[in-house]
């Protein structure tokens, strides 16, 4: 059984230094190559429509706004300008989402995004996404992209298949620095020492992003009005804020879990995403809020704790977002895939608990 014995500490360290670092190296190479292609596509989009200014800039070999979902799936966030004439409205009516409403006394013509404003005065995420998808489709028809970039037609999200091997989603977003949504007002939990006050202040200063994403899972039936409201709403994303509080060995544990996921929890349609693991690590941080509980001697126990949480969520068919507990990250996932994920996750955690040398063979 994994635990805090010297041999198990060595196993965890060795697994991280070999398997995890190899995964990181492979992903970095793939991500860099794919992101350079997306960078060129966004330059073409900007020529077609100057309001969509490319924010994908390389700095010291890294790109801001790139999220890794798996070794073959990435997301590029395109940050837009001119949100100022809109009010941010987070009334909790659409879990995980908020709307941007034209400020009182402001005319549509004062907005850079005038044609995407609904009759009720809301900036429609769906309308903007549709226009952006059309522009990307036009850009990749150019000879330099045509042979190895294809739009994935499964949803209204702008998703590209690059080189036949990688999926890249390009998401339009507004940065909301210095704003904290009402839906996350309960955070941080004042009864525990993690995160400390300074770190929590940094998180709230970082704020979140409002992203244009298709948030309605296939198979979810809604009335026409609810469907329209959710389509116009903007999904709240806290990736940058989450990265602030996941430091040191907490981040190390997440990296190990991602590696285990890629090797043992990946199957067609898997509901077990890297983001769900990240969410469960954040909950584990609250359960074990002292820094000494995340020292090298304890990491193996934290891995098992997160995986047991994962099994429970999959069996209950629900996984709450860390900052937005009313948002279910497993919403709309087919029951058979959740059950298959639970079986695979239990098989993995059982191996870790019963086999004292598990990480040498996993």
TrEMBL record:
<dbReference type="InterPro" id="IPR046903">
    <property type="entry name" value="Mab-21-like_nuc_Trfase"/>
</dbReference>
<dbReference type="Pfam" id="PF03281">
    <property type="entry name" value="Mab-21"/>
</dbReference>
<comment type="similarity">
    <text>Belongs to the mab-21 family.</text>
</comment>
<feature type="domain" description="Mab-21-like nucleotidyltransferase">
    <location>
        <begin position="63"/>
        <end position="248"/>
    </location>
</feature>
<dbReference type="InterPro" id="IPR024810">
    <property type="entry name" value="MAB21L/cGLR"/>
</dbReference>
<dbReference type="InterPro" id="IPR046906">
    <property type="entry name" value="Mab-21_HhH/H2TH-like"/>
</dbReference>
<protein>
    <submittedName>
        <fullName>Uncharacterized protein</fullName>
    </submittedName>
</protein>
<feature type="domain" description="Mab-21-like HhH/H2TH-like">
    <location>
        <begin position="249"/>
        <end position="346"/>
    </location>
</feature>
<dbReference type="Pfam" id="PF20266">
    <property type="entry name" value="Mab-21_C"/>
</dbReference>
């Amino acid at each position: 059984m994994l635990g805090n014995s010297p041999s198990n500490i060595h196993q965890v360290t060795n697994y991280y230094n070999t398997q995890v670092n190899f995964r990181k190296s492979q992903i970095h190479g793939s991500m860099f190559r794919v992101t350079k292609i997306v960078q060129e596509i966004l330059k073409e989009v900007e020529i077609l429509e100057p309001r969509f200014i490319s924010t994908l800039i390389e700095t010291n070999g890294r790109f801001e706004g790139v999220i890794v979902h798996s070794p073959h799936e990435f997301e590029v966030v395109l940050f837009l300008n001119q949100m100022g004439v809109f009010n941010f409205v987070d009334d909790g009516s659409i879990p995980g989402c908020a709307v941007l409403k034209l400020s009182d006394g402001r005319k549509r013509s004062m907005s850079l995004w005038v044609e995407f404003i609904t009759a009720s005065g809301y900036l429609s995420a769906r309308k903007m996404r549709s226009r952006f998808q059309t522009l990307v489709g036009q850009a990749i028809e150019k000879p330099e992209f045509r042979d190895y970039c294809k739009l994935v037609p499964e949803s209204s999200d702008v998703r590209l298949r690059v080189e036949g091997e990688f999926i890249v989603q390009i998401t339009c977003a507004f940065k909301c620095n210095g704003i904290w949504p009402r839906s996350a007002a309960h955070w941080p939990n004042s009864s525990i020492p993690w995160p400390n006050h300074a770190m929590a202040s940094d998180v709230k200063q970082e704020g979140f992003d409002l992203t244009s994403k298709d948030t309605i899972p296939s198979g979810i039936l809604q009335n026409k009005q609810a469907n329209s409201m959710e389509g116009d709403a903007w999904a709240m994303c806290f990736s940058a804020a989450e990265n602030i509080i996941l430091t040191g060995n907490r981040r190390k544990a997440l990296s190990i879990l991602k590696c285990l996921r890629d090797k043992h929890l990946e199957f067609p349609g898997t509901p077990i995403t890297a983001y769900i693991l990240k969410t469960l690590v954040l909950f584990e941080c609250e359960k074990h809020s002292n820094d000494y509980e995340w020292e090298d001697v304890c990491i193996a126990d934290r891995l098992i704790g997160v995986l047991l949480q994962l099994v429970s969520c999959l069996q209950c068919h629900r996984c709450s977002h860390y900052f937005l507990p009313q948002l279910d990250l497993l919403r709309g996932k087919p029951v058979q895939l959740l059950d298959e994920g639970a079986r695979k996750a239990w098989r993995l955690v059982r191996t870790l608990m019963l086999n004292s040398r598990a990480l040498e063979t996993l």
